[in-house]
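To close the section, here is one more complete example, presented without commentary so you can practise reading it yourself. The ligand is LLP.
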Amino acid sequence: MDFFEVKDGRMHAEGVALARIADEVGTPVYVYSAGTLRRHARVFHEALSGLDRPLVAFAVKANPNVAVLKLLGQEGFGADVVSEGEMRRALAAGIAPERIVFSGVGKTDGEMRAALEAGILQLNVESEGELRRLSAVAAACGTTAEIAIRVNPDVDAGTLAKISTGKAENKFGVPLDRVEALYAEAAALPGIRPIGVAAHIGSQLFDLAPLEAAYAKLGALVGRLRSAGQVVSRVDLGGGLGIPYDPKLPLPPSPADYGAMVERVTKGWDVRLMFEPGRLIAGNAGVLLARVVTVKTGATRSFVVLDAAMNDLIRPTLYGVYHDIRAVEPRAGEMVATVVGPVCETGDMFAEGRTITPVEEGDLVCLMTAGAYGATMAGTYNSRPLVPEVLVDGDRYSVIRARQTIEELVGADLVPEWL
Ligand code: LLP
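Output:
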């Protein structure tokens, strides 16, 4: 459910015509809908309403714009961060440190120190070496780190290999059979207080069964830890719920289905549950608005060449995944087009042989469902400046990240004086 709709023949984000944003801000540009973000946040909270004080920490990696984080903070969300940069953004957005959890497989000593100095709620520890380094850093800071052990439950999430994180061969988490020993070591280390366990098995999941299997393993683990005399007061269930990208495919499980499953599986755990949704909240709340530079007839097919490229939205190139492509002012009829960007790689392709409404040079199009893992994964390949981001709320909009200028792009290079 989102608020990007065609009204009077022109697509709007809530009350603002996308053509107006394109004229005033230029293209390509990411456009987010505040109403959609709020709605998704509320639907997720509603789905968890049967639980006791759940903490929902938005996975900042999905959309780290400070304005987006501020909006979600106002909805009661915390933040799940994986770098000092993400933590600083969450703090800059006014998210309280007690609502921030730091995940990630390679936290540096500097990042651990920054997290402890900021006083965040919890660090999710992913290895023996990391635990021992954290102990030394915390002891040196004269503080105690509350930690959860991230478990690798060896569950196949049934999603793309590149975004699966819970199989034994993946780099994430501590193998289940080593968690109890590590928890006991943590309890004995200076500067460390183990308070729980965590898991995140993958992203864009269309089936609740792997999540349920992973959670069941966590539940059994909590029982074993308690039998061994350990304190377990929090369990972090990660993120991962899938969202619809292709309108022709069946819908993913709803947040309500997910909430009901969680309630059933975690009954009696007697812990505070934490969640780290990213895509579910931000994905359908954003589009990448682009202009058709030209329509080119090749020897065997027609190419629609946009002013947006793989450096702006890399998901189709990186994962081969589908993003719906819609004309902002749809014309009658249809055309079969291969929709590409101007970057000098054949892989710079948003869709191959896709049936879309006909477009012509100068038309505006939207790459839908680009609010998560869109702008955040952008780069400047081919020396293309980072594109701006806009937040629409009702009838108003603001630029929430300015377009990088060519001067900034070129000016960041430093030429040694000896050249
Ligand atoms: N928690 C942890 C520890 C994570 O690693 C992730 C995502 C999340 C939560 C949020 O997962 P979500 O609810 O958004 O599925 N770039 C890829 C997605 C990578 C996800 C990485 N981790 C894509 O564009 O599909």
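Once you have examined the tokens, check your reading against these statements. The CA atoms of residues 143 and 189 lie 12 Å apart. Residues 59, 61-62, 80, 103, 163, 200, 203-204, 238-240, 276-280, 315, 373 surround LLP (CB under 6 Å).
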